Amino acid sequence: MYFYPKAFTPGCTTEACDFRDNESRFAEHGYRILGISADSPETLRDFAREHDLSFPLLSDPGSETAQAWGAWGERTINGETSIGPVRTTIVLEEDGTVLSADYGVVVPDHVAGLIGALGS
Questions:
Q1: How large is the C-alpha radius of gyration of the chain?
Q2: Measured between alpha carbons, how far is 38 from 3 in angstroms, rounded to an integer?
Q3: What is the average pLDDT score of the chain?
Q4: Chain segment 48-93, per-residue pLDDT in tens
Q5: E-strand spans in 28-77?
Q6: What is the DSSP letter of 9?
Q7: Which of 1, 7, 12, 36 is flagged as catalytic?
Q8: Against a cut of 0.90, is the pTM above it?
Q9: What mean pLDDT do residues 35-54 have?
Q10: Whether residue 120 has pLDDT greater than 70
Q11: Mapping DSSP to helix (H, G, I), strand (E, B) and coil, where does residue 73 land?
C-alpha cells in the first residue's frame, strides 16, 4: 500500500502511473497495489478514471490511517517545512506482517527499486 499527498499533482500522478504500469509485475510476486490519500472519493474516482488506474484508491479524509501507519509528519516542499502526509510505501505479507516500510519516498525509480527488492 502506498500513501501519497494529493491526486492530480505531478509527483503523485507519476507515482500512480508507475504503479499502474507495473501492476502485473507486483502480481507476479503475489502483491496487490492499494493507494491511500486524503482526497475525497469523488476526486479519487476522477483521478483513477483519467489515468486508467485499476487498483483501489482509498480516501482517508482526516488522515487517521496515514497517521496510524506513520505516513504523516514533517516534510519539506519547495523549501517550506510543514506537517502533513509523507509519501510512504508499506509492503504487507498476506497475514498482515509488515515486510518493509519506506518513508519519504522519492518518486523517480521508487517502483523499480521496490519490484527489485520484492524479487530478491
A1: 14
A2: 9
A3: 94
A4: 999 999 999 999 999 999 999 999 999 887 888 999 999 999 999 9
A5: 35-37, 57-59, 72-77
A6: S
A7: 12
A8: yes
A9: 98
A10: no
A11: strand
Cell of 33: 497495489
Q: How far apart are CA 43 and CA 2, in angstroms?
A: 17
- Provide the grid cell at 35: 493507494
Active site residue 17: no
Domain over 2-119 is classified CATH 3.40.30.10: yes
Q: List all residues 6 or more positions away from 7 whose beta carbon is below 8 Å from its beta carbon.
A: 13, 16, 37, 39, 43, 44, 46, 47, 57
Output the pLDDT for position 78. 83
**Domain extents for the chain?**
2-119
Q: Which three cell numbers stand for residue 8?
A: 492530480
Query: Residue 119 is placed in which grid cell?
Result: 524479487
